[in-house]
Model the fold of this input.
Amino acid sequence: MAQDQSVPDIWLLSDERNDAVLEQAIGRLPPQSGFVFRHYHLTAEARAARFAQLMPILRSAGHWAILSGSVTMAEAWGADGVYGALRAAAPAGPRWIATAHNAAEIADANRFGANAVMLSPVFPTRSHPGGDTLGSDRFRELAALSGIPVIALGGMTAERAEALDWRRWAAIDGLS
Done:
């Protein structure tokens, strides 16, 4: 399958840790980067309001605004797509950034039509202290199974992406 070259190279993910600096972090992203809005710590109403606050900044730089939520919610909020593991065909219309931690989940992303897959955790993370990581070799083995663009996630920084020699990567702390 041909790789979708339009998928952004750099991705910022949101959560409670980086909420206070999100506007600045988004402002430092290269144009046409990706942004995944998670913010699971907020109520549904507060989450929708925070997403709406960020949309003008995202739109002004041409960033992909991806929502961790349902397709219905993404469409209602004006997001460009959804983020997460799905077990059925990709929805028509919005983009889908799948998540994967193993070969089976990469196979699902390939089979069900994701636009890209975030493969994690490559390195140790603050999100999952002490958790197992893929490391460089296993990351490359799994990435080779993908027919769609692979975005490295987990302990990523610009320096680690360069050392990994991987152009597509995502971070929370590493970009905040």
About this structure: The first strand starts at residue 10 and ends at 13. The chain has a mean pLDDT of 91. The CA atoms of residues 156 and 162 lie 10 Å apart. The helical segments are 22-28, 44-60, 71-77, 103-112, 135-143, 158-164.
